[in-house]
Structures are given as structure tokens and as C-alpha cells.
Amino acid sequence: MTQTAKLALEDGTVFTGESFGARGEVDGEVCFNTSMTGYQEILTDPSYRGQIVTMTYTEIGNYGINAEDMESGKPHLSGFVVRNRSRQASNFRADGDLDEFLERTGVVGLEGIDTRALVRRTRIHGALRGVLSTVDLDDDSLVAKAKASPGLVGRDLVREVIPEKAFEWNEPLSPWMQPIGEQASVAVGNGSPHVVALDYGMKWNIARHLFDMGCRVTVLPGTATAEQVLAREPDGVFLSNGPGDPEPIAYAHETIRGLLGKLPIFGICLGHQLLSLACGAKTFKLKFGHRGANQPVLNHDTGRVEITTQNHGFAVEAETLPADLEVTHLNLNDNTIEGVRHRKHPAFSVQYHPEASAGPHDSQYLFGKFREMLP
User: Fold this and answer.
1) Active-site residue among 269, 272, 306, 342?
2) What is 4-148's CATH number?
3) DSSP at 357
4) Active-site option among 29, 41, 306, 355
5) What does the pLDDT look like over 98-116, one tens digit per residue?
6) What are the pLDDT digits (tens) for 143-184?
7) Helix (H, G, I), strand (E, B) or coil at 87
8) Does the annotation count 353 as an active-site position?
9) 355 a catalytic residue
């Protein structure tokens, strides 16, 4: 039995469709993702905390859900919007379907609206706060709730998604992630380089990559201090992706400053922004963000264009970049910074997601670059 659901935006626009997944009411910043596949990885990416995600591709759910492709223990996004939800999951790897997965994990879904109109509005006016509801169907009430919702700016969403305590990671890449012709996982032992991964909302495939290339990986909550990191006696430090505004995460800035110059550092997405902030740069909110598996990035070192997976609503402000940081990668859609490298210390970061889950494999070489910096 279908049930009516509505998505209301703070500018007064209301979209009416049908609900799937869980029932209820959620608020969040409405964003869109242009990936044609990878909806399960998107759903379970902690970086989407506080957001209602709209998929631009029209058919979502057709290959189902499986345990192997999870990027965290559960979805963290507020709501999920699609044009059409496939009623049939056709894939030999599937062990469930999208509707059941969202219902079980408490995610409110909306289908049957004009997602193209929603995306066009977002591109023209910028990201808007919204409320998605199967409970309250009064347009004026929903718009008022959208206007009153907190949004992303100034909030510390990292504390809502980080692990409660430290743990050791011991899961390699899935065979499905291993490019044809490349070597299998490197064995990990007591003599392997030790990486501490500061988890601000880390996608699991990042940890799989680090483990797969022969590193012992200790995951620490993103609130860990420099002293707590150094006490683990690591050979290198990884700064993970995560949700929301990087500027309020002052504890992370302080930790990174305490580690810079003492150990090799590699950051991805939020980790890239936090490294830049720790070095003295500033960040700003993008009009509607970069989210998808088809973003072109220019590598200044090689002159090659990499097609990348991205998910961020903030970026490093080029005009504030300190002299100690040099730009290594540039987004060819809007010329925003996609990568930096420290001129004095062994530290670098990228704004996009080289772990390729889901997405192209063009940038996986960055994990090898980090491995070369370790003993």
C-alpha cells in the first residue's frame, strides 16, 4: 500500500510523491548526487549526515543491497529521494532490496517526484534546507519547519558519526575492487608499517585500501589528541572524510597541527579541509556542492585528468592558502582546489575520494603514494 509523502524546501517549494522505506519526518540540507550506480555506498557514507540526498539517475534500487558494499554500519543521511524505485532487485550478489533496507535502518524515502526540477532549483538557488515527511502533509507547516531547521553551517556533525572507541582494522578489499592484473593483498604482520586513521566519519573502503597495501591500521575517533595518536607509535597518520562544516572542528585542527612534521599525513575530503585549516587556510560553502562519480580533476604533477568520486559541500578557499601549501589538483568544473601538498613536511591531501567506492579507479595511486612515505 502506497502512502503520500512530501518534501518541502525553505523557499516555499513543495514536492509531493510516494513514500518508501521508513515512515516519519526528517529535516536536512537537500543535495543531489549524479552517480548512476553506487546508491548503497552513498546511503552508508557518514559524510551525508544532516542531508536529504536526491539521486539524479532515474532508476534506483535495480541491483539491490548487499552486506559486502557497506561503507559504514548503517545509513547516516536524513532522507533519500529518487525518481523511480525499482521493485525488482536483479543481481546475484544481492541479499536484500532497497525498500526493505531503508525501512529496517529507519531512512525515510520519497519517490515519484520530478527530481530534475528539484536539481535545477538547487543548481540555480543553491542548496536549500528541507523537510521530508509522511506524517505532516500540510504545505505551510512543512515549509515553516524547513525554514527553522539548522542546516549544516557551524554544526559539528563529526561527533555524531565517529566510533566510540579505538579498534584495529583487519578487512582487505573485496575481490570485486581489485583491478584485473594487479597483485593481491599484501600480507600484514608485526613488521608492517602502522597507520593511525583518524575517523571523522570514515568510509570503510578507505581502511580496506590501507590494510590491503600491507599496513597495520588502528582507527581512532576523530576527537583524539596528538598525544593519543603519538602514543600508538604510528609510522603515518590518515585523516578521513566526514560530514558537514570543517571550521567548527577545532579539536581536529589542533590535533593535526600537533602531528604535522612528526609523521607522514594523508587526508581525504574532510581530512583535506582539516589539514588546510590546520595550516592556516580557510574554507567556504559551495553553492550546491560536488557529489557524484564523474567529476573531472586536473593533476598538476602529471597533466592528466582524473575522473573522480566526490561528496562535499565545502571547499578550501584558494585566496587564503598559506605559502607552506601548494595546489596539486584542480576541479575542472569550477576551478576549486582538489588537492594540496605541504612544501616542508610529508603531508598531502585530496578533496575527492580515491577509494573508488563507488566510482572510477583513476586515483587509487594516491594510496601507493602514501605507502611510499612510510618505512
Assistant:
1) 269
2) 3.50.30.20
3) T
4) 355
5) 999 999 999 999 999 999 9
6) 999 999 999 999 999 999 999 999 999 999 988 776 554 555
7) coil
8) yes
9) yes
